[in-house]
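Thread title: Can someone regenerate the structure for this chain?

I was given the following input by a collaborator and told the matching structure tokens would be attached. They weren't. Posting the sequence so someone can regenerate them.
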Amino acid sequence: MGKTKYINSMGELSRKDDSICFRKNGKNVYIPVENTTEIFCLNEVSLNSKLLDFLSKSNIIVHFFNYHGGYSGTFYPKEHLISGKVTIKQARLFEEQREIVAKSIVNGIRENMIEVLMHYYKHGKSDIKPILTHLKKDSVEKLEKANNIKEILSVEGYIWQTFYSSFNHILREDFVFNKRVKRPPDNPLNAMISFGNSILYAKTVTAIYNTHLNQSISFLHEPSEGRFSLSLDLSEVFKPVIVYKTIFDLVNNRKISVNKHFEKNVNYCMLNEEGKKIYIEALEGRLESVKEHPRLKRKVTMRTCIKLDGYKLLKMIMEGKEFKPYSLKEGI
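Best answer:
Regenerated them for you:
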């Protein structure tokens, strides 16, 4: 896969010959088309239809973020891999086996949370043992008893709340966590979670774009107009592995500071420009980290693993093979 380009400053994007040009403060920065898969606009950026046509022909996706660092939307080129056959079978799987796929996703979230927390338990954070017990036993029983999507979503909520309860045992005191607040985030930890989740969601949109899957037919989240709900599904199991591991590393190794890297107001908190750069660099580092894939017998990045989950779902849609999302423990 090609590279991701992040634009943190205000400016103008345009086409210059066969390149993309970003102009700010009277200076031009050129973005090569050949090895660029997606562009993240994290500030106010202007562009025109000439550029959009060029981006579409080059199959480059552009993600837009708002002032608070939340996901606003995506410029999505025409789907070059769209398949009516896959869409029909994907809809059939939704009708016949939605709960099975949804449970598999929730169980994948749970297993990856356990693997992330076990690292801290083994390194002296013994206070989280009851939390691990809840994730290993109670949540499994709850998930097995869930009979419909509403109940499965309730178990997912329980699992996330259990995971959140570990934070004050793991993180430094200045990153206190009371509860998850999203729109807008109200403290530095919530700001990093929201920003990371938004980037991961956009990355998943890009990954699914490069498969035959239909973005609008999801299994855990309710399919709805105006959003790529399948990307919400497939990104969930990667949140503990990519977003939260990145945050834990930045906080505990003092790479990010409450006083230096955030803008705070009465109603919101967000990463400042320097904070975003630090966070993005760490997140990209984790996405590009390479591990040996036990089945493929070759090294793959975490970014590729997101796309591989899309292929696993395709296998279930087209061949009836069980869908088991990415497992941090197993490396697949």
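The CA atoms of residues 12 and 46 lie 5 Å apart.
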